[in-house]
């Protein structure tokens, strides 16, 4: 039996929100996924998510994602390393995935997955990012996010919404590394997918055809993910330098007035 213990609130750091959003927007054809790391207050039943791990998809599907035990183990090891580095408790608190072109609400598969993890940790939480939803009135796409747990209803599992608060925070180094590694992970997924298909094909023309599609996929990642990401980070750097210069100027003005 799962303990009747549920989360009251989830605090999500703004930089983790940025990483998850960036990850969700990398593809509108398949769902993406990752794990959430932080610490939980056992007294108030509040989770504080301050890091995440982007997971490598071994099987790309438009309507579902799965987390392997190996990936969960790797994320747990990452949380332990962060705990030592930051000298504070850190562990895997939940998971996130995307819903491209569909509503933000969890499916029956999502609820079963969530319920399975709550059997191991009653305070485990799920986040869903709904992306590429068309707004016909404004002619634009909008993003939605939901924070949920599963609860046992009379006949089936039900969604239990959890209050989500996005907490302002600077872009931490370990989350910056996660964003920087995103293109590499996407490219490796394409290489692995191509290798699996090629191993069953002996025809050279078919292999040449598949190689061409792999090249196109990698070029697409570079143009739509790597390049915009670099431009965004460069703009962030300019903003930080400008802010630093303004603060130094303000400090010098205070110093001169004191003298």
TrEMBL record:
A GO MF annotation of the entry reads: metal ion binding
Q: Which GO terms describe its cellular component?
A: BRCA1-A complex; BRISC complex
Xref: Pfam families: BRCC36_C, JAB
Residue intervals of the MPN domain: 10-154
Q: Which UniProt keywords apply?
A: Hydrolase, Metal-binding, Metalloprotease, Protease, Ubl conjugation pathway, Zinc
Which biological processes are named by the entry's GO terms? DNA repair; protein K63-linked deubiquitination; proteolysis
Classification via SUPFAM superfamilies:
JAB1/MPN domain
Any transmembrane segments, and where? none
Q: Is Heme a UniProt keyword of this protein?
A: no
SMART domains registered for this protein in UniProt: JAB_MPN
Family, similarity comment: Belongs to the peptidase M67A family. BRCC36 subfamily.
What's the protein called, per UniProt? MPN domain-containing protein
**Which species does this protein come from?**
Callosobruchus maculatus
């Amino acid at each position: 039996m799962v303990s009747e213990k549920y989360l009251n609130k989830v605090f999500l750091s703004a930089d983790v929100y940025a990483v998850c959003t960036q990850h969700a927007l990398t593809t509108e054809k398949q769902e993406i996924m990752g794990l959430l790391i932080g610490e939980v207050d056992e007294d108030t039943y509040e989770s504080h998510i301050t890091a995440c791990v982007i997971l490598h998809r071994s099987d790309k599907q438009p309507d579902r994602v799965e987390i392997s035990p190996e990936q969960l183990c790797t994320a747990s090891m990452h949380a332990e390393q962060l705990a030592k580095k930051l000298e504070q408790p850190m562990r895997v608190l939940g998971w996130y995935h995307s819903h491209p072109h569909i509503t933000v609400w969890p499916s029956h598969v999502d609820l079963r997955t969530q319920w399975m993890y709550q059997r191991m940790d009653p305070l485990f939480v799920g986040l869903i990012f709904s992306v590429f939803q068309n707004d016909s009135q404004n002619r634009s796409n909008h993003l939605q996010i939901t924070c949920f747990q599963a609860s046992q209803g009379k006949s089936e599992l039900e969604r239990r919404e959890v209050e989500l608060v996005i907490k302002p925070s600077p872009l931490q180094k370990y989350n910056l590394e996660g964003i920087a590694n995103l293109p590499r992970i996407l490219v490796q997924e394409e290489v692995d997918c191509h290798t699996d298909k090629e191993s069953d094909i002996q025809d050279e023309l078919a292999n040449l055809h598949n190689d061409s599609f792999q090249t196109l996929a990698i070029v697409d990642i570079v143009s739509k993910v790597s390049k915009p990401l670099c431009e965004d980070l460069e703009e962030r750097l300019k903003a930080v330098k400008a802010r630093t210069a303004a603060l130094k100027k303000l400090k010098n003005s205070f110093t001169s007035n004191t003298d």
